[in-house]
């Protein structure tokens, strides 16, 4: 699973590994679940936009 920021098609993560040099972005996944969560904390106005899970 990968997370992509649609504004610039920047690949943010693959699995739980992040490829963005910003510690506010983290990916969470439980082995007991099919859910993958992208969390941005603290969120800022610049983070506005669509993020896509692929």
Automatic annotation (TrEMBL):
Residues 1-54 form the Ig-like domain. It comes from the Eukaryota. GO terms for cellular component: neuron projection membrane. InterPro entries: Ig-like_dom (IPR007110), Ig-like_dom_sf (IPR036179), Ig-like_fold (IPR013783), Zig-8 (IPR037448). GO terms for biological process: synapse organization. PANTHER family: DEFECTIVE PROBOSCIS EXTENSION RESPONSE 7, ISOFORM F (PTHR23279:SF6), DEFECTIVE PROBOSCIS EXTENSION RESPONSE DPR -RELATED (PTHR23279). This is Limbic system-associated membrane protein-like. It comes from Aphis craccivora (Cowpea aphid). The lineage of its organism: Eukaryota, Metazoa, Ecdysozoa, Arthropoda, Hexapoda.
